[in-house]
Amino acid sequence: MSVTVESPQQSKPQRHKVTGDVHLLLRRGNEVLFGQRKNTGFEDGAWHLPSGHLEADESVIDALVREAEEEIGVVIAPADVAFSHIMHNASSGGRMAFFFTVRTWQDEPTNMEPDKCGGLEWFAPDALPEHMIGYCREAMQHITESKPFSIYGW
């Protein structure tokens, strides 16, 4: 009689791998800056916060500062970054989306990626554009309500 023994590796569920995103709420008074997506292949025409992926060996603050300069040409001091919200988003197999608010920066916001962004515009949180990516709209609602954590799409 032969007995099959499962190894501990076979019986454990696979570990969840997650992508990290950073999102910038650049605030001018009561308004937040949004860019209109273009030629990205995902939600083109939608308004979205300046954002990007966390790279290897990079903190979420460093990623936010880098993305702000790359996408909208502003220089942000890490000390001026304030945590606003984190969302565990089910898209693409799972993402952690970090949202940060910045009220002080250097240089004027400029569309640095005209191949991927149709333009920049300021919107009040209570008058957001009609066409937005769903998780971003929901995160903005949570931020308005001072809720620091949410899940989306699970």
From TrEMBL:
UniProt-listed Pfam families: NUDIX
Assigned keywords, A-Z: Hydrolase
GO molecular function: hydrolase activity
Superkingdom assignment: Bacteria
Signal peptide from the UniProt entry: none
Domain Nudix hydrolase: 17-149
InterPro entries: NUDIX_hydrolase-like_dom_sf, NUDIX_hydrolase_CS, NUDIX_hydrolase_dom
Needed co-factor(s): Mg(2+)
Keyword Ion transport: no
Protein name, as recorded: Nudix hydrolase domain-containing protein
Organism this protein belongs to: Nocardia ninae NBRC 108245
